[in-house]
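YM 10:42: Membrane peptidoglycan carboxypeptidase sequence, as discussed on the call
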Amino acid sequence: MRNRSGLLKMFGLCLLAGVLVAGILFPVVGLAGVVSNQASETVESTSAELADEPPPQLTTITDKDGKPIATLYDQYRVPTKPDQISDAMKWSLISIEDRRFYEHNGVDWKGTLRAAVSNSSGGDTQGASTLTQQYVKNYLINVIYRNDELGQQRAQEQTVGRKLKEARIAIQLETRMSKEEILAGYLNVVEFSRQIYGVGAAARAYFNTTPDKLDVKQSALLAGMVNNPAVNDPWSNPEAATHRRNVVLDSMVDNRKLAKEDAERIKKEPLGVVPGGPNKPAANCVGAGPEHGFFCQYVEDYLTTHGMDADELYSGGYTVRTTLDREANRIAKRSAEEQVSKTQDNVANTLSLVKPGKDRHEVVALAANRDYGIDKEAGQTIYALPSSTANVTGAGSSYKIFTAAAALQQGAVGIFDSVPSPGSYTSTRYTNGGAPYTVGNAGTYPGSMTLQQALATSPNTTFVHLVDRIGMKPILNMAYKLGLRSTMTSNAANGGPVDPDNESNAWSMEQRKFYGPRENSRGMPSFTLGVSPTNPLEMANVAATIMSGGTWCPPTPIAEVTDRNGKPVQIKEKPCEQAVNEDLANTLAVGMSKDDVGGGTSAEAASSVGWSRPMIGKTGTTQSNASAAFVGATPQLAGASMVFKPDNPAGGIVDAGPGNVYSVGEGGGNIFGGKAPARTWFNAMSKILEGEPPRPLPQPSPRYE
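YM 10:58: structure's back
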């Protein structure tokens, strides 16, 4: 019975061979011809996929000078040409997987028929796959269907139909590619273990060498892994890896590619892999390290929200040259750490820097006191602290920038006009859940002052009074236009202030209760006090917009993107736009130019570093001193520093001086925007701009004076 089954299997495979030859060498008539033609179309389609879909490659992220900072990948692969692979590697693989590789035309009929007889009791056609056929299968699994589990399953089915398709494609490949190209192709797509694919990456990861220098011992280990990478992993299962390596050595002896005495000698030697695990780069932004990880994360987030999906980014083999200034980033991080310890529980200090301009706003640095990474016990985090609203609380009175700008735009007041600053003020237009909305000042102020003085000294009552005069709609609009684009969108999604020009935003009953009646405007007066979660990078970009004559540009981290062939790739970035007219922006800049001098809220921090450059600035502090911010700019560089509680917003923050800033679980603190945030900003900016000549601020326009 067993022999009869084997004969039937042999007969079936002879028919299979006939169909293959018939479908390739001459047309077949009748039903067989229809089947053959349909199969040919499928094979042609798959062959085209193999030609058009290149293997995944890692993407390299660099600084502005092209020096790498990180790699992104799902499959760690180093492309390798045929002449870059050692003969030892080639013959190790051929000896164990396909000894007649140079003799067949893609399908080894002798081996296939012998496997059919030996496997007759199993009822399948497994075994005897040539390297060309394995190349096809591995390409389908690791390239074409790498994100398609069902497709991968179909590519490994032990059926005559799947074998037929695989064999036909293999024969076609043999007519299009040389043996050396097929061998190298296989060695470039095959999986080893631990996200390592291809012999180029394996040589580096396992032995810290290049594929052209792989010796027999190393090659035998790698060749032995391909049939079951997980089981033969040399670090997790060295005994299995050693056994499999020795089987390969024996096959090389049988194939007359290695002397028996050499094989026996090598069998006694250790595996020789690098200790502790593979030598390969991290697969994501953790590889950028504690200092550059936040910038890398922003690059990834930026690209995936501007036309490139994550899979494309992690497999496309791109080179992304960024706008990162390593030295500026180093100084920014050091300044943030000097104010708040990196291991301080539940206190983050960020500094985001943007270069103003009318054609681009390039992000120069994204730093935090915390290190970027996955070791929570060491204070590390992978939250995008300097460039996201996630885990970030309010920016406080720095939002008064938007109220002042809207009041100027509406013609309600000039920058040098007198505005009231009473000790207490109750809104005449808005309520707080039906009760009167009343605010007081954190300090003593004269009964009135100019709007410029109000921006420098920050009385709450002045700006709530301005909210009553012009309404919330122009203020929310101004915040969006000047740069809080994702901040406003994120807050709207979470029930906060919405984009006033988007009428599709629903005004729920909960929002009515929280923000007051809708009337003809949206929001509430406390928006001007900066209670909403705020993206620190966007606050820096607000300052850049003002310093750019009112021109808003997206805060871009991208200098250039090229594909795996070195060709430029266009990123779908939003164009720059004139957010407000230049006269208004210039006048607002003059209005913000007194924060660092006289009685300005950041004067002490500025004086501590001997600051003398023309600049604009605004501090901010939220209720109970739970967070604080400083936003400022010179004509050359804009930035925002924010100190907040990322893990639990309850309670305040105490500022007892540089390096002694800590969280209070309950009750209020004593931090203000003029303390740690301003010190962080001035300490960093004074060093980054050292040696650059000061530039003057623009002149105000009589229209807004």
